[in-house]
Amino acid sequence: MSDSGIPSYSLGQLLRYMLALGTWGFGGPVALVGYMYRDLVERRQWIADADYKEGITLAQLMPGPLAAQLAIYLGFVHYRLLGATLVGVAFVLPSFVIVVAIGAVYVSFGGIPWMQAVFYGVGACVIGIIAMSSWKLTRKSIGSDKLLWSIYLASGVMTVLTQSESVWLFVGAGLVVWWIRARPTRWFDGRLHALGGPALFVALALTALPDWPTLGQIAAFFTYAGTFVFGSGLAIVPFLYGGVVTEHHWLNDRQFLDAIAVAMITPGPVVITTGFIGFLIAGFWGALVAALATFLPCYILTVLPAPYFKKHGKHPGIVAFVDGVTAAAVGALTGAVIVIAQRSVTDLITAAIAVGTTALLWQYKRLPEPVIVIIAALLGLLLHPLANHS
């Protein structure tokens, strides 16, 4: 961002970046939001740190996939509705194309036997990637602030214990910091005081369910899923299982596990697994409807409050609220690293891959993550049979 207030980058440059991130960005939501901070705030300085914090706060307060919401908000920062719309499409499109292609192969050949082997290596590698991303976000967002550290730690512990993320925790953290640092001395003077911002976001987080009854069962279910699942894309997994396998019987257990594996071994948002699931249910159009139904609610619930965030985001009460939510959000993301590690690190081999990935990224700051992911996939194919026979 230039001193004159004119963005130092074009919309085309931002779209190219989001296309690249959607194509090569492995590691799930924690890693993706970390990449955006590293690339857009630290290295290229296209986005101000304050704008990034506002975006991740809004993404945590609103339902839907975290990384996609943040990308949409960053597109809105300087290019408003057009930027938000095009950035959202650019970020999701590459991974959608990839999962549809994998879905076509999966259906044609009756499953993907090698997928578990690939996921064996990649899943462990992802732990190292997101651990480094979480560490960077923690260092930048929390600093030495004791109040924010207490919220961060509490949020991380709660995420590990419950293995889920709660919007009430984020809202509560924001209100605590607001109350301690910026509560108004006068409450009723006819104007929107510092309390107005938090109250607005609480209200928005509990409303605005799109009604698409004419789009059929797929659209209705995935819209509902996209509207009521908060936090990272991984939070949608148990919700999807209940609807896709248990309620509607669209997939069996084996197919559902393969769908989650596809989401983890492909770049971009984890929630794009809905496109793969949609393809298995009803081919290409099922994939398209499922993906649109999942992402449209998060798009609407990002662009609607975004103008308010941009206009009032510098108010001391809003700043305090944002600080509290950010601390809770980063704590939850750090806790998610432990939750994911419990599922992906299953033996000494996967532990070694996870630790090795972390060490490489720590030592070589500019080492491209896709290179590590490819190596981990090859190690998975090579070592998974040995693990099975040990």
The proportion of residues forming helix, as a percent range, comes to: over 70%
As residue ranges, the low-confidence spans are: 187-215
The N- and C-terminal alpha carbons lie at a distance of 55 Å
- Overall mean pLDDT stands at 78
Helix-strand sequence? HHHHHHHHHHHHHHHH
Shape: globular
How many distinct folded domains? Answer: 1
- Secondary-structure-based class equals mainly alpha
Strand content: under 5%
Counting DSSP E segments of at least 2 residues, the number of strands comes to: 0
Helix segment tally: 16
Q: What is the CA-based Rg, rounded?
A: 20 Å
- Main sheet summary: none
What attributes characterize this protein structure?
16 helices; mainly alpha; globular; 390 residues; single chain
Describe this structure in words.
The structure is a single chain. The protein is mainly alpha-helical and 390 residues long. 77% of the residues lie in helices and 0% in strands. α9 packs across α12 (273-303) and α11 (253-265) packs across α12. The chain starts with 10 loop residues before the first helix and ends with a helix.
